[in-house]
Amino acid sequence: MFYRPQDGHGLPHNPFNAIITPRPIGWISSRDAEGIDNLAPYSFFNGVAYTPPQVMFASTGAKPDQDNTKDSLANIEATGVFCVNIVEEAMRDAMNASSAALPRGTDEFAHAGLTAEPCETIPCARVAGAPAALECRLTQIVTLPGAANRVVFGEVTGIHLRDDCLRDGIFDITAFRPLARLGYRDYTVVRDLFTLKRPDD
């Protein structure tokens, strides 16, 4: 099968997200100008540089009460900071609850039954008990083609690692089993690892 996106795929559901999988989930916490915390998952997320450490996530939707954007993006534009919380298997239901399209000014931490803890380097909350959290300062927002497609880049200024996830000096993802997004409404969990040495190692 071959199709041009502008012509449509002719399938019951768009396969694009199912092709680019698995995708890590950036559980983005932010705070609006009035001090209300926000939390939302984004699966167009990844690390983009080591030195200094930098991450990105893409916002591809809009809410009618946020002037053609989402709460996370509006908050980050207003404050210049955000935090990326890593989602473990045990927090999948809370993550899903935080994805609801709630009215502007709603605290998703409370809605999802989560505890917010203060970050160390930025004025923002993070998810208490998350396996890891990356405190970030906004570096740039890039507008992409499309009605509401924007990419947020941030420099990581502080990193939280949950103590039980550190084993023999390594951040062991099998200790918490990260959740990853697939296509459609599907997710997966990372449980098994294998190691490959690079040819020049």
Topology order in helix (H) and strand (E) letters:
HEEEEEHEHHEEEEEEEE
Estimate the global geometry from the Cα principal axes. Answer: globular
Unreliable parts? none
The H-level CATH homologous superfamily, spelled out, is Electron Transport, Fmn-binding Protein, Chain A
- Return the average pLDDT rounded to an integer: 95
CATH architecture: Roll
How do the strands of the widest beta sheet line up side by side?
3-2-6-9-10-5-4
Helical percentage: 10-25%
Number of domains: 1
| Tally of contiguous helical segments | 4
Supply the helix-strand structural class: mainly beta
CA(first)-CA(last) distance: 40 Å
Task: Give the CATH topology.
Answer: Pnp Oxidase, Chain A
The CATH class is: Mainly Beta
Classify the beta-strand content into a percent band.
35-45%
The biggest beta sheet reads: 7 strands, antiparallel
Please give the number of β-strands: 14
Query: What is the radius of gyration?
Result: 18 Å
InterPro entries: Flavin_Rdtase-like_dom (IPR002563), Split_barrel_FMN-bd (IPR012349)
Domain Flavin reductase like: 18-173
Protein name: NADH-FMN oxidoreductase RutF, flavin reductase (DIM6/NTAB) family
Organism: Cribrihabitans marinus
